[in-house]
Amino acid sequence: MPKEVLINCGAGEIRVALVEDGRLQELALERTVGLDEGGARNRSEGRVGHSLVGNIMLGRVQRVLPGMQAAFVDVGLDRAGFLGAREARCLADLPGFEEERAPKIGECVHEGEEILVQVVKDPIGEKGARLSANVTIPGRLAVLVPNQPGIALSRRIEGDEERARMIAMGEAMVAEGGDRLVPGAGYILRTAATEATLTDLKEDAERLADAWRPVLAKRQAATSPATLYHDLDPVERTLRDMVRADTIRVLIDDAPSVEAARAYCRRAMPDTESRIELFSGPGALFDLYDIEDEIEKLTSPRVPLPSGGWITIESTEALTAVDVNSGSFTASTGLEETSAKVNLEAADEIGRQVRLRGIGGLIVVDFIHLSEAANIAKVLGVLEASISKDHTPTQISPMSEFGLVEITRKRVRDPLVKLMSECCRSCSGHGRKRTRDSVALEVMRRVERTAAVAPGKAILVRAAPEIVRWLEDHGEEVSRALARRGASRVNFEAHDCYAREGFDVATVA
Predict the structure, then answer these.
(1) Contact 71, 88 (CB under 8 A)
(2) pLDDT at position 49 over 70
(3) Pairing mode, if any, of strands 302-304 and 276-278?
(4) 189 φ, ψ (degrees, to nearest 5)
């Protein structure tokens, strides 16, 4: 099916949507205004508003905890990062340990030691960033693994013949690359490499070597904590990780970002440059496929299904529960057929909802009871197909006799519901309301729309005092971001008559 990538470079937030056959399939948010409340403003070595995943840092081991088989490493964030023994094993000086035994954390690192680590999971809630000592640098076609020689393949590359072909091409790349590549390094070939030539692969590996050499040079002069390497900006990262041969176009609603995207394509993926387009209206970019409405629905626990049934998604500290309900739908052929139809619809939708909402950890799905093994197999097949579209590592268990299916998905970032809402104290934690910053960012998007319709006119925003206070606290950032998007004359007024989520944006004569 044809795919489109939509990149909204708005004031205060960069939002990326992958649309397949007119339907939203993936969503990524990168906030760029007001991150100081979460401690990002103090990250002197980090780029404010961007995910830290992929950043390579020089850190210092604070504590080694043999009981947890882990260490805490100071990398310059509010909280020390967490380094498990498994992620630190490449530092152990134990030749052949992989065949005999895994090393203990005390054999990998020592308190006070400076080590090179990479962020593999952003700080979530009260937890610090998750780190790995086995650093990597991803490219368009391959991932450079400096500490581990050899060729490995993406798990999405299937078939014995195809895997053998790719291994051989990777080995040829290393053999012919010579001094232009990183000595003794290994590579993981990505799915996109299956469509590439050996020349393409060598050029990608040379770009990775060019990215790695400055890291080594910086390490010699740096004092911990220090960030030595940043992953690509959100727009470039989207092109690298989401755009494939079946992507028919990439729409971006910001002219400087379009130029940056085209420059990246010329360096790394020239065949894609012609597919990048500047969106200039009419309307807003995310109006094309009603994506704004879709995003609004992603914080609701209830998701309707085509038959009239629905699924309910509820998250706790331990797990996320997904309940399947048939509602008023009844198949004329009986209960088993009713249950099978609703379960099949739910299985297809669950994978999509998990991706869009960024749900991680343990997910337990309570399907409607099925008696026939053939129907159970169909439901699991559809669920596996839906989950297989996910780039985040995910596993599915067989269905239990009670109709339960367990799914585990790697946690990388806070789920969308935590990013956009918070527990409502007035309802004793049983409900949620939107956070101040998510409402403030919506205000900024509304200001953008108003400025586009009435260019050059002054704009007045009336909102709740806490929202206006947030906008004024981040005044310089907000003003700069709005001016970049064509809204340079904006005033804010606080009114007690507005609830948190209520506001009004209008032009001033």
Answers:
(1) yes
(2) no
(3) unpaired
(4) -85, 125
